[in-house]
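WARN retry 2 of 3 for item q-0093 after timeout on previous attempt; input resubmitted unchanged.
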Amino acid sequence: MENKDIGGSFYQGNNPGFSGQNPFTSKNVEIQSLNKTLSEISSNLRILEDRYYNLRKKIQLTDQALLDTQRSFFKEKRILGDDLIQTKMVVQELSEQIDLMRLEIVDAVKQKDFKVLEKYLDLWDPMQFVTRKEVDDLIEENERDEQDE
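OK item q-0093 returned
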């Protein structure tokens, strides 16, 4: 009978570790609970993996767009640099031409000097001057007149 008490007390809840339930039933409940938790964790892990995959794709697309934009900016920078060099050359040429024009203006006759020269020419009246041919003709004519006389 003593064995029955020991056995009975084990299954009837006299053992402080069990509360009168079948240990196999409580193990099944724990296993089911663990399976449920494990499946929830697995489901959450799949969701997190999908999110990670989607974020990774977005980052790849963003990186590719950034690289494309960077290439475009470098190309525009090179073109603008070339344009800047050409513009500097044009400005240099214009500066040289302006310097030449300034020198020509400085060397040009001032209006006052031109008026003085014009007065002298009017005074001398070069249109009344004779040419060499006219002088030669006059000399010949004069010599003929002298011979005739």
